[in-house]
Amino acid sequence: MNNVRxxxxxxxxxxxxxxxxxxxxxxxxxxxxxxxxxxxxxxxxDNIMPSGNTITxxxxxxxxxxxxxxxxxxxxxAGLWMQNAMVTNPSEAPGKVYVSMGxxxxxxxxxxxxxxxxxxxxxxxxxxxxxxxxxxxxxIDPFDHxxxxxxxxxxxxxxILDFGVQPLGLYxxxxxxxxxSVDCSNIPQDTTTQDTTIIxxxxDTTTQDTTIIxxxxDTTTQDTTIIxxxxDTTTQDTTIIxxxxDTTNQTSGVRxxxxxxxxxxxxxxxxxxxxxxxxxxxxxEGGTIKLFTxxxxxxxxxxxxxxxxxxxxISGLSSGFYLIRYDKDGKTLQRGKFLxx
Length: 341
Description:
Elements: H1 3-16, E1 19-30, E2 37-44, E3 54-66, E4 69-76, E5 80-88, E6 96-105, E7 118-127, E8 134-135, E9 157-162, E10 168-176, E11 197-198, E12 212-213, E13 226-227, E14 253-254, E15 264-267, E16 274-279, E17 288-293, E18 298-303, E19 309-313, E20 320-328, E21 331-340
Parallel strand pairs: 1-10, 13-19
Antiparallel strand pairs: 1-2, 2-7, 3-6, 3-8, 3-9, 4-7, 5-6, 9-10, 11-12, 14-18, 15-16, 16-19, 17-18, 17-20, 20-21
């Protein structure tokens, strides 16, 4: 499938919002019958039935192993994977090596089946170090807090679209597992759609607060903060976050970060002009939303206050992945990644 068609299909998912959500887990394990050879596997939750018509859109796997050992012989099995980063003995984790494999394309196609582990790639570890490799735990590992000492971007991520099920399937990385079973009890498959879509495009010169399209029967009152890029002449009641290089008199800056947890969700992703941070618990208030590039460069931040949604205008940012981070009381509570198309 060419990139233009893939982009169109992602756009269709975002626009119609009619998809089912499910989880994918990863693990690393020694390959039986081999010496010093390991495999990284993916497994979907047992409550879904993936079709053979899936497209894996993005992915990254970060392995950790003791320094003194040598990583070699990366061999893709399903999908094309390449090593894209290696950090030895970072100050946050002395004695450890972090190596990240990036997903390049879905050739050969990664096939996901219920109650079945899919081998993504294999590798070898040799040397005098003691211990076995493990997968990084997003947001928990001391090296996975941006910006880190070497401005690296470790972490696990996997996003799959399934065009062979109705509604359209969206499977994303949720965590790591061991053995042969995964825990999928926390987040069941969700077939609901989002409550609101905000449609105030850049360049609109009308005077307005915010235009919100609400599904029939929804009587809730939205509380939205819009982050506006330079060049938007709309008059709005907003908190403004400014992309790098803007010399206008804006009221704030912006940052970038991502991971999934229990505090917020991000939608849509991929995003074109807007991305919304929707907080899941009305009892949780305060803290700061920060925006980063994937290299850990801070773009700015915004105070949450008592808002349940913050909608960011990202039309002024370049295409690529960005990171959202939610900080409160000196701690990072959650990270989330989104794709800007």
